[in-house]
Amino acid sequence: MGRSRYAANGHRRRQLRARLAALGLPCAICGDPIDYSLPAGDPGAFEVDEALPCSLGGSELDWDNVQPAHRLCNRLKGNRLHFALDGFAEALAMESRPRRGAGAGPAPSGPTMADTGGRW
User: Fold this and answer.
1) Is the Cβ–Cβ distance between 26 and 68 less than 8 Å?
2) pLDDT tens-digit profile of 71-119?
3) Which of 17, 47, 89, 98 has the most CB atoms at less than 10 Å from its CB?
4) Are 66 and 29 in contact (CB under 8 A)?
């Protein structure tokens, strides 16, 4: 297996990350301030987000394509182009909601195959 994107561009990526963090900007996704002192695994920690995701052709090293984000906001955005939250509290609320297919909540209502004699 080949080297990861980060391993191949680690030094340049760390420089870009440090430069972006030094600006102290708020989260580009939710608009709330970022606590740049939080450890990397914290949901509110600083991460570099690519406005145009790498999976859609964006560059992780292009200064015009990167923006600061909370770790949680960045995870919720995924590889979407346009995604916004109304504050970090909304991100936390979305995170605490049950996910589809997680087995939470009542079963969907409506006819089942058993109700129709096994025929749709």
Assistant:
1) yes
2) 999 999 999 988 999 999 999 999 888 876 655 445 445 454 554 454 5
3) 47
4) no
Whether 43 contacts 27, CB under 8 Å: no
Closest among 62, 2, 67, 58 to 28, alpha carbons compared:
67
**C-alpha–C-alpha distance, residues 52 and 48, integer Å:** 12
| Count, residues in the chain | 120
Q: How far is residue 33 from each of residues 10, 41, 70, measured CA to CA in Å?
A: 26, 17, 9
Rounded distance between C-alpha atoms, residue 28 and residue 24, angstroms: 12
Please identify which residue in the block is written with the tokens 């561009």. 9
Nearest to 50 by CA among 41, 37, 59: 59
Encoded tokens for 113: 């195959």
